[in-house]
User: Fold this.
Amino acid sequence: MAWRVGDWEGAISHWRRAAELGSDNPFVYMQLATDRLNQLSNGLTLDYRMPAELTETLRGWLDRAVTLSPRYGEVYEKLGMVEAFAERPRVESINRCRKPF
Assistant:
């Protein structure tokens, strides 16, 4: 409901709680990852490397979304972005992004 009325902070808070409780909705994880990546995108340069802890958090959310909905194409786009800026990219994730289904 918060998202529908434009309360982005409230929506993020609810999605974060849903993720903590193990939601089976891939949209929850996708929105959390999208929000965090949007925060990072301002001023990014090609030589930026994402801190390991953030990389693992984003991978966790996106891996969960892929597990729940393997044909959710937008997830692979975000996962590719995470791997592009990861200090140590996961080759299997990059390959999965190239041919997701």
About this structure: The two ends are 32 Å apart (CA to CA).
